Amino acid sequence: MIDLGDIKAAAQIISGVCVRTPTLPSRTLSNITGSNVFLKFENLQFTGSFKDRGALVKMTRLEDKAAKAGVIAMSAGNHAQGVAYHAQNLGIPATIVMPRFTPFNKIRHTQGFGAHVVLEGDTLEESKAHADMLAATEGLTFIHPYDDDDIMAGQGTAALEMLTDYPEIDTLIVPIGGGGLISGCAIAAKGLNPDIKIVGVEAALYPSMQRALEGGEQVIGGQTIADGIAVKAVGHRAVDIAREHVSHIVSVTEAQIEEAIVLYMEIEKTVAEGAGATPLAALIAHPEMFTGRNCGLIISGGNIDSRLLASVISRGLVRQGRIVSLRVEISDQPGALAQIASLVGEAGANIIEVAHHRLFSDVPVKGADLDLMIETRDPEHGREVVARITAAGYTVTQMSITAAGGAS
To answer: What pTM, to 2 d.p., does this model score?
Structure first.
C-alpha cells in the first residue's frame, strides 16, 4: 500500500507539468447545503480531468526500453486523454482502447494528442481484454486507469493540494469509479489529518465499491451520465484502502447528478461532467451527513459532450419550473391559437414551441389539443399562466418531469 511519502514524491514529479488547480470556497453552495463547501477544480487540468496526474507519474517512471516500445491503455475517455497527452510530451508511442460508447469529444481529443485509438468492446471489461491482448502481442506496457500504485499516488496529489490550501477541511467527498482517485486521496488526507472523514460517491447504477465491500447481489450497469465512473469492478488495491480509510459510501441518482451539473453551471460558472458532479449531488442528496462540516469536493473532470450538456441544462430548467409544458383543449377554428398566445403573453411568459393534435387525441372532432412549451420565471409564475388560461374557460393539463427523469 502506498503512503503519504509516495504521494509527496508524486507531487514533485508533476510539479510544473500538471496544473496546480485551485481549491476555492463556495459561499452560495455552502448556504444551499448547510455545510462549508470547498471545491477542487480538477476540470481545469489541461485535458479536463484529474487523470493527468497519475498518468504522468506512471509514465515518468517507465524504464527506457518500455518507454521506447510504447504504452497502451483502456479508458472511457479521461484516462485516455491523460495518457495520450503526457505520452506525446514524453515522446512515448501510445495506443488507447476505448469502448464503443465513448463520447465522440473524448475520442477526438485523445486522437488530437497523437494516440492511436482503437474502439473495441461494449464495456470497460471488454476493452480491457482487448488492450491486454494488444499489450501481449505488441510488447506494450499497460497503463492501468486505477489499479496501480503510481497511478494512485499521482491522483492523491489532488487531496494533498486541497489540504495544504485549506487544512480546516474535515470531510473529503470523492467520486468512485475504479477507486484510484479515492484511494490516493484517502491516503494523502489521512496522512495529513488522521481524523478527516472520507466519503465516496458512486452512481446508483454502478455501486461497485459497495458490492466489493459489503457483498450482496446489487445489480450493476445501465446508461449513466457519469460515464467516467461507470465501472463494474473496482481495483483490488482500492478495496483494501477503502475498507481501512473510507467512512461512508453513498450513491446518487441520475436526476441528482443532473441537478448538480446545473448548479455548477449556474452558481460556479464551471462545467462538470457527470462523474465530476457526483460529490455535490451527494452533498445535496444526503445533507444530514454533512451539515456544519467543512467539506472538500473534487470536481474530477469537465469533459461532457456539448449536446448532452445542453440537454441537461434544458431538463434542469424543466425541473426548476422555468420551462413548462402545457396541453390546452381548444376548439379547432381560426383564432383559437391566437387567443391562447395572447393569454400567455399577457401573463408575461414566452412560447418556445407550439403544436396542434387533431387526430391522435380523444377530444371531440371539432376540437384539438394544443401543446405549448413556455418559458416562465419560476414555478409560481407557471401557475399564474395556467390560472389565466383556465379562467378564460379552457381545460389545461400541465406536463411534468418525474424524479427518474421521464415525462408524465
So the answer is: 0.89
